């Protein structure tokens, strides 16, 4: 018989039951974010991310997964309308007084930020592009890292709205297979800093060297695959 209970964090309800490992766990919502224009078969990171997710759901079949592809799904850019709307709202203007375009765009960003807050676990599958993440992923970060939505200002500096909550993340990242003048790729450090700002305390990072299945190391692929399948049991 299942042992069910309810938990309420930030107005959300969670159920506790036995998972396939026989341990009590809180049913969770995973936000699975990809940033790769390639088809899955042409990307080592996408292939591995898919294997991780499949194994995770085998172990936790009642958890919910929300998939976001920043290339496929429309991410609202922070443009002049958004900046104007933020300024007017911060000044205390009523939301109804915004222009239709301002209101539409800021609502889209707020929905994206609210989705991030509602989720319990985050999986990011990315690759390097000129020492950094793709521009579409940066647009997504700007739509989720929002003042007074996902972080706030205090006398001691900023504080993430997720601080103190049991949130965790996994970043699977395929770095460039070759050196670019010896310069350091900033992708992983950047996302880690953003998640720290938002209050995600428990972060895992798994790295690949190269994203092309035809040129990447098969031995490395299997090593990373084994690590991810192990993480699926504890994530």
Automatic annotation (TrEMBL):
Q: Which Pfam families match?
A: Flavodoxin_2
Top-level taxon: Bacteria
Q: Domain named Flavodoxin-like fold: which ranges?
A: 29-214
Q: What is the recorded name of this protein?
A: FMN-dependent NADH-azoreductase
């Amino acid at each position: 018989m299942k042992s069910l209970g309810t938990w309420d964090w930030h107005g959300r309800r969670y159920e506790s039951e036995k998972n396939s490992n026989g341990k009590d766990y809180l049913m969770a919502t995973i936000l699975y974010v990809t940033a790769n224009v390639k088809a899955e078969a042409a990307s080592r990171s996408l292939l591995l991310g898919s294997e991780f997710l499949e194994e995770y759901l085998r172990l936790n079949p009642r958890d919910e997964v929300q998939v976001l592809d920043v290339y496929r799904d429309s991410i609202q850019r922070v443009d002049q309308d958004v900046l104007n709307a933020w300024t007017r709202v911060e000044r205390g203007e009523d939301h109804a007084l915004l222009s239709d375009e301002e209101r539409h765009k800021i609502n889209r960003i707020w929905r994206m930020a609210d989705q991030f807050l509602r989720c319990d676990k985050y999986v990011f599958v990315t690759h390097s592009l000129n020492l950094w993440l793709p521009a579409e992923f940066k647009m997504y970060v700007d739509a989720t890292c929002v003042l007074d939505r996902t972080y706030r200002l205090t006398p001691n500096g900023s504080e993430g709205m997720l601080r103190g909550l049991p949130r965790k993340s996994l970043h699977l990242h395929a770095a460039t297979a070759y050196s670019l003048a010896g310069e350091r790729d900033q992708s992983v450090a950047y996302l880690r800093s953003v998640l720290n700002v938002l209050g995600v305390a428990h972060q895992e990072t798994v790295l690949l060297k190269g994203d092309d299945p035809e040129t990447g190391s098969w031995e490395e692929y299997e090593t990373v695959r084994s690590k991810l399948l192990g993480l699926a049991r504890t994530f």
